[in-house]
Specification:
By secondary structure, this protein is an alpha/beta fold. It is built from 17 helices and 22 strands. Involved in cell wall formation. Catalyzes the final step in the synthesis of UDP-N-acetylmuramoyl-pentapeptide, the precursor of murein.
Length: 459
């Protein structure tokens, strides 16, 4: 955050100061929407959520060091009152970008956004000051909060951009216009809100490349036909990445180590270099290539990129997070969120990690799958059986039952158990696990299986 007085911020966002003793007081630290996350010198944005009204925590934010509160009404402590707090945060972020001008890299996709963002940030920050989205704060609140962490020294701004419906990326790119746009893939995440199928999802995701300038770069996954179909929607220069021979940035000689970590030769226009990722699953190769493509257009060479990818570590919790228990049980917590594509990738990665060890899957519902939801859950059930998992525990009624039924029908000596809720699933999994097992836990975030995974890891 570049230092700004409360009076300057009020002018930018059109705010009315209330209970502000010193309009020249400086905001010198990033903004926060959680009063517990406020740092001295920051600004607290009082947003209203489904269960929490930030205005009720304004006094606590000031006590924690906030200079003032960005609020929709007076709160009895120093506040800048606006009609719409979310919109005001966006205005403030846009104002900041005009004054510091970093290279903005926007990335979107149905799966892999957070992992790719984390990889790219670790590659870039070895060479220049870089700010990247924290965890998956990729929406209309998270994006401006990320921008407001940048300052005059920031050279690269890596912004994960989520899209729950058409128009979301148009809004986000309006707040932070990217020069580089990275599209990972098109799947079924959020299909319920976007339309009826992948073509509708592609229409929404392509808003990112439409926002790019002519001197920018659209980095497109050559292995995804829906992403390749976006080439005609941008005036930016195009660079393809992927495992396809037509990709300028690609992987050759892909293999998995005995710890299920991918290794490959990175091929780029500047040369080639070996990469050994510290993440599990072959699907991580695509995420690494996406990060490499962005680094290439930013001027890094193949050796520098390969070194950055090899030394990168998992940063965000709940995404193929591995915990080894003292009794030899390995817990693979992938419960941050779920859709069919990420569920398939996670199941395969955990099975590859297990090798000949006994495998247990604890799976809940995948949200927002529209009319195809039951069929997609059944497909996952059959995959669990086909991959030769030993035990499947489903969590919840409805679609998880379809998963269980399909798994039973597929056979392969798979033991299938159904549970009604997270507590019951934890109790059953705890009883069934044996020393040396690998247990994979995944569902959409609203199911709450992250708590189950963490309890299993701590057992």
């Amino acid at each position: 955050m570049i230092p700004m007085t409360l009076n300057e911020i009020a002018q930018v966002v059109g705010a009315s100061p209330h209970d502000v003793p010193d309009p020249h007081a400086l905001v010198t630290a990033p903004s926060a929407v959680d009063s517990r996350a406020v740092v001295p010198g920051g600004l607290f944005a009082a947003t209203i959520g489904a269960r929490v009204d930030g205005h009720d925590h304004a006094a606590a934010a000031i006590a924690n060091g906030a200079v003032a509160v960005l609020a929709a009404r007076p709160v009895g402590v120093p506040a800048l009152v606006v009609d719409d707090v979310q919109q005001a945060l966006g205005q403030l972020a846009r104002h900041l970008l005009h004054h510091i001008s970093p290279t903005v890299i926007g990335l979107t996709g149905s799966v892999g956004k957070t992992t790719t963002k984390d990889l790219l940030a670790q590659v870039l920050e070895r060479h220049a000051p870089t700010v990247a989205t924290d965890r998956s704060f990729n929406n209309e609140l998270g994006l401006p909060l990320t921008v407001l962490r940048a300052d005059a020294t920031t050279r690269h701004l890596v912004l994960e951009m989520g899209a729950g419906r058409k128009g979301d990326l148009t809004y986000l790119t309006g707040l932070a216009p990217p020069r580089i746009g990275l599209v990972l893939n098109v799947g079924t995440a959020h299909v319920e809100r976007m339309g009826t199928g992948p073509a509708d999802v592609a229409q929404a995701k392509g808003e990112l490349v439409e926002a790019l300038p002519a001197d920018g770069y659209a980095l497109l996954n050559a292995d995804d036909p829906y992403v390749i179909g976006m080439t005609g929607r941008t005036k930016a220069r195009i660079l393809l990445y992927g495992r396809s021979a037509q990709a300028q940035v690609r992987a050759e000689h892909v293999r998995l180590t005995d710890r299920a970590r991918p290794a490959f030769t990175l091929v780029t226009p500047t040369g080639r270099a070996p990469v050994q990722l510290d993440l599990i699953g072959e699907h991580q190769v695509s995420n690494a290539l996406a990060a490499a493509a962005a680094a290439i257009v930013l001027g890094l060479d193949a050796a520098e990129i390969a070194d950055g990818l090899t030394t990168a570590r998992r940063r965000s919790a709940g995404r193929l997070e591995i915990v080894e228990r003292p009794d030899g049980v390995t817990v693979v917590n992938d419960a941050y969120n779920a859709n069919p594509e990420s569920m398939r990738a996670g199941l395969r990665a955990a099975k590859a990690l297990a090798g000949t060890r006994r495998t247990v899957a604890v799976l809940g519902a995948m949200g927002q799958q529209a009319d195809a939801s039951r069929a997609r859950h059944a497909e996952i059930g059959r995959l669990v059986a086909d991959l030769r998992y030993d035990v499947l525990i489903t969590v919840g009624t409805g679609d998880p039952h379809a998963m269980a039924e399909a798994a039973r029908s597929a056979g392969h000596d798979l033991a299938v158990h159904t549970t009604g809720d997270v507590t019951a699933a934890l109790t059953l999994a705890t009883a069934l696990l044996e020393p040396g097992d690998v247990v994979f836990v995944k569902a959409s975030s609203e199911i709450g299986l992250d708590a189950c995974a963490r309890a299993l890891a701590d057992a």
